[in-house]
Amino acid sequence: MSDKNQDNTKPTNFIRAIIDKDLETGKHDYIITRFPPEPNGYLHIGHAKSICLNFGIARDYNGRCHLRFDDTNPMKEEMEYIESIKQDVKWLGFDWGEHEYHASDYFDQLYQYAIELIKKSKAYVEHSTQEEIRQMRGTLKEPGKESPYRNRTVEENLDLFERMRDGEFDEGECVLRARIDMASPNLNMRDPVIYRILKAPHPRTGKKWSIYPMYDFAHGISDAIEGITHSICTLEFEDHRPLYDWFLDQVSVPCHPQQIEFARLNLSYTLMSKRKLLQLVREKIVDGWDDPRMPTVSGLRRRGYTPESIRDFSDRIGVAKRDSMVDLALLEYCVREDLNKRARRYMGVLDPIKVVITNYPEDKVEMLKAVNNPEDESMGTRQVPFSRVIYIERDDFKEDPPKKFFRLSPGKEVRLRYAYYITCVEVIKDEEDNIVELHCTFDPKSRGGFTPDRRRVKGTLHWVSAQHAAEATVRLYEPLFTLADLNDMEEDKDFHDYLNPDSLTVLENCQLEPALADLDTSDRVQFERKGYFVPDHKEYSSEKPVFNRIVTLRDTWAKIEKSMKKGE
RNA sequence: UGGGGCGUCGUCAAGUGGUAAGACACGGGUUUUUGGUACCCGCAUACGGAGGUUCGAAUCCUCCCGCCCCAGCCA
Where are any strands of DSSP class E within A62-191? Predict the structure, then answer.
């Protein structure tokens, strides 16, 4: 391996390249990043990408990453969200240590910086209405017009701003604006509002303030106060960078962080806007923020995804500036890879059909040895009960087997995993021609799953002893939407038109290996041949086990079936 | 003919003038008591297009085309 590309494990991207250079040139010798959520919703996998990016950089460069709540809008923000965000970041495996901050911690300083701007004639109190301000802003093509209030004296502005703070004006009556350039081709520079009057109490500062800073003013200054070296945000803030820099140049802050923008995550079949996610919750299309179909961190957690797999996913998708749409299959690949190594194997029949082994003694019960994880011998073995009546999966039997079907069918022999070879001798049906039971015979010499004559048996089925089975509920999940690219909906349609009616399937009569009724809710397991499952942490109990399917196993047979159907 | 970005395989993504990494997906095969896993093979004469500079261009220049973002007292 003389290849320069041999190590793909370390993420490399344009942001790390910038940091490498800043370290080389001595611009910085310690790297500080930050993850700055607004506490107005739950974190989703797009945020996870940003968290992994910012905390990952801090970890790899021996720097640190701050958790800072961007809580400058008390109308939309709530304490509930702050707690969920902290829990999610921790669960993802990151630690901000002592460095938890809130933009609201800086309200006093921000206010002083605003005064500094006013004193430099770089800000003024605007008394025009919201509508008038919009009119004066101009359009994309036409320059804006200067406000009649733009040239108020410093003293007047100072007085007015103080009175804004003291609550003398009503909401909407006036705002503080930066005095930049109404003719700028960048609309963000046309005297942006930096303080507005909001009489709402703030979750953290209570009734202390009746004016609140806007994002553009608060964010950069907060970065500077904390000594952030690289302020990483998403692409839509690219146009704001000149403003970010302008504020930091005008005001006496301790340093001037560099804003760097990257493309946010888009995932196929997945909605990634906080607003629409909120809608799904409010309209009860899903069962809360942590519904296992949600792309929220709490949803993924309840679904059974591991933090390791999400971090791996983040590393694999990379970081760049072009708009992109990542294939859901990659996320699924990441969990499968993680769980394959770690999940214990069990047998669980999701859609049972009864099988009577006619030549097996009525009352006999045997304990058979099963391997817990073929990928990891140290995980040991277990004993599984076997008896005369068992369940197998309904679609593991076909009366008229298609080509290449090597599961059970009349007259055919298959292996029951870790148990015996059985041959189907009779199909029992009800009046409506539904198969209700199969009668099979077993070969006593095949105990454990192989015979002295070493004859080959192609199919191996999972099974559960009927008298020992634990009855359980299993929920199967599919994507919430039927459209891969939800940014590309037809005109006059919205996401409601693309809801997948099969996103949730609840199976009530599943028959599971008894050990499955006695798991810890953090145990993720594999049901052999079916997929990876996790006990639902809200509903699972030994009396009534409830499982969520995390992801299926790769299913080559399903692909063959599909292509055979196409070929017909 | 407002400004800011971006265009490399189906999807991500390296590449920074020296002759197109890697991953997922997909197709084929080997092993297999999970049609799982693992392993092997294949998969861009080609980098949005057209010109140009150069011995040599995905990388530099020119023009063109396409996509995304911005007119909140949201972040």
Answer: 64-69, 100-102, 123-126, 175-178
Residues 200-259 of A with CB under 7 A from strand B: 212, 214-216, 219, 235-240
Task: Decide: A348 and A462 in contact? Cβ < 8 Å.
Answer: yes
Q: Where residue A8 falls among pLDDT bands split at 50, 70, 90?
A: very low
Burial class for A30, CB neighbours closer than 10 Å (0-12, 13-18, 19+)? exposed
Give me the pLDDT at residue A492, please: 87
CA separation, residue A267 to residues A273, A314, A428, A487 (Å): 11, 12, 47, 10
Per the annotation, the verdict on A399 as an active-site residue is no
What is the rounded CA–CA span in Å between residue A195 and residue A213?
4
Q: In Å, what is the separation between the CA of A321 and the C1' of B52?
A: 29
- For residue A448, pLDDT beyond 70: yes
The nucleotide closest to A527 (CA, C1' atoms): B34
Nucleotides of B under 7 A from a protein CB: 2-8, 10-16, 21-27, 33-38, 67-75
pLDDT at res. A6: 37
Q: What is the pLDDT of residue A3?
A: 34
Evaluate if the CB of A526 falls below 7 Å from strand B.
yes
Which nucleotide is closest to A415, CA to C1'? Answer: B33
Catalytic residue check, A261 = no
Q: What's phi and psi for A57, nearest 5 deg?
A: -65, -45
Q: What are phi and psi of A406, to 5 degrees?
A: -115, 40
Helices (H), A376-482: none
Q: How far is the CA of A7 from the C1' of B57 (A)?
A: 28
Catalytic residue among A59, A86, A137, A264: A264
A368 neighbors A384 (Cβ within 8 angstroms): yes
Given a cut of 50, whether residue A197 has pLDDT beyond it is: yes
Burial A329-350, CB ≥16 within 10 A → b, else e: eebbbbbbebbeebbbbbbbbb
- CA closest to C1' of B24 belongs to A330
pLDDT digits (tens, 9 = 90+) for A400-410: 999 999 999 99
| Residues 99-158/A with CB < 7 A to strand B | 128-130, 133-134, 137, 139-141
Q: Is the predicted pLDDT of residue A333 greater than 50, yes or no? A: yes
Strand B closer than 7 A to residue A8 Cβ? yes
Active-site residue identified among A274, A301, A412, A530: A274
Helix (H, G, I), strand (E, B) or coil at A58: helix
The amino acid that residue A553 corresponds to is L
pTM of the model: 0.96
Give the amino acid at A495: F
Catalytic annotation on A173? Answer: no
Helices A14-24, A45-60: crossing angle, 10 deg rounding: 20
Q: 3-class SS at A560?
A: helix
